[in-house]
Amino acid sequence: MADTTKEAAQPAAQPAASHQRPGGGPHFRIHTFDVFRLRDFRLLWAASIGSSGGLFMQQVVIGFLAYEITGSAFLTSLAIGADTLPMLLGGPIGGLLVDTMDRRKLVALAFAYQGVLALGFGVLIYFDMVNTWVLFAFVIAMGVSWIVIDPGRNALIAQIVHRASMVNAFAVMSIAFGITRLAAPAVAGVVVDLGFGKFTGPVIALGVQAVLQLAASGVGFSVQAERHAAAGRRLGHAFADIGEAFRYVFKERLIVGLLALMALIALFVMPFLAGLLPVMAVEVFEVGPGGLGVLFSAIGAGALVGNIVLAAIGNPHDKGRLLGVTTILTVGFMVLLGLNRSFGFAIPIILALSASFMGLLTLINASIQSAVKDEMRGRMGGLILVTWGISPVGYILSGVLAQELDAPTAILLAAAATAFFVILLFVRFRTLRHLE
């Protein structure tokens, strides 16, 4: 932790956006990769590359298999989003474990669990033992791992880096997800089209996923972050402290507003984008698994661009205005996606949409983690997961609307609902507009 201590020793009041030239005047620089100076952050970033790469390959496999097996837009959308279901009930438990156990080991073991599970599902496909129920069981079982990975990783980031570098750190971590969102779905789309006898494309893709996530586990164990102060405390005491976390949230209007904004994305944006892409690919754009992989990769490209820009800003002082701009852009690009019928135009629209709302999510995460004390960060991460746990409602809604109307109309209705509730939020919670 020598380099972490070195950064933490820097004066908190030092401007994050500039340093002095030898001649005296301020010299502004881009801060995109400042946090890579920290060894533990580099390792955690690399482990996240492996884990998220496996996840985004899995999304293409699940989207393809679900529509192939069921032929239902509703079930396909639900299958892609079912991994968020454990977050609704398990989020507080995951946050509790993060606050009472060694975060480094907990996250690394969860990565290993993901790899073994992917390998097992690949074996079931190989022996032709997969049906709708098995498909959903795998997705939900994989979702269980995220109730400790997400709050654990977020808490580790906040533990490793200085508070002034928090937005930069979360943006750079999200760049890892952007890279894998860009590359992994495209690779998975090509692989799913391949096959060698019984070793079908989905089997090969799941094998690659397993390798990536097991490698992430090995790298995760190499992180040397110190055990946080609350690690090892009795679970009985920690359970009592869950109430403290809820009381803290409801007392802080800023955090309530930020969680509500995140809930809107979980309910109306991601489900209507990722959940309906397999349907849009077949019914609107008339492309196969390769085209579906490209569409999912466009989400990754947008996330990468959005978070590179946010990381370059470093520590934005007017975060409230940035929240407003990114939400307006998110709604606007959703409208364009719903109106578009061209596969070629869909790619840049999805890229821009992803850049706006992924940057927004990063800003929300960093702002929440900056506002809480270290011993509560795991539980706060668990509450964030509870917010994301409403995603299955969005996936169900997107599937029903796409089934009864069509996928583009469903996206337009989601954009309208997002705009309506965002306006209410920014009127009701002035702290969002004045976030610094």
Account of the 3D structure:
Helix 4 (85-100) packs parallel to helix 6, helix 7 runs antiparallel to helix 12 (289-313) and helix 16 (391-404) crosses helix 17. The protein has helices spanning 2-8, 39-70, 73-81, 85-100, 103-126, 132-160, 166-193, 201-220, 235-251, 253-273, 277-284, 289-313, 319-339, 343-371, 377-388, 391-404, 407-428, 430-433; strands spanning 18-20, 26-28, 195-196, 199-200. 78% of the residues lie in helices and 2% in strands. The two termini are 29 Å apart. It contains 18 helices and 4 strands. The protein has one domain: Growth Hormone, Chain: A (Up-down Bundle), CATH 1.20.1250. The strands form 2 sheets. A two-stranded antiparallel sheet has the order 1-2. By secondary structure, the protein is an all-alpha fold.
Q: Which second-level CATH architecture applies?
A: Up-down Bundle
How would a textbook summarize the main sheet?
A: 2 strands, antiparallel
Number of domains: 1
What is the overall number of helices? 18
- Can you write the helix and strand succession as a string? HEEHHHHHHEEHHHHHHHHHHH
Main β-sheet, spatial strand arrangement:
1-2
Number of strands: 4
Q: What's the alpha carbon Rg, rounded to whole Å?
A: 21 Å
The helix fraction, in percent, is over 70%
- In the CATH hierarchy, what is the class? Mainly Alpha
On the 0 to 100 scale, the average pLDDT is 78
Structural class: mainly alpha
Straight-line N-to-C gap: 29 Å
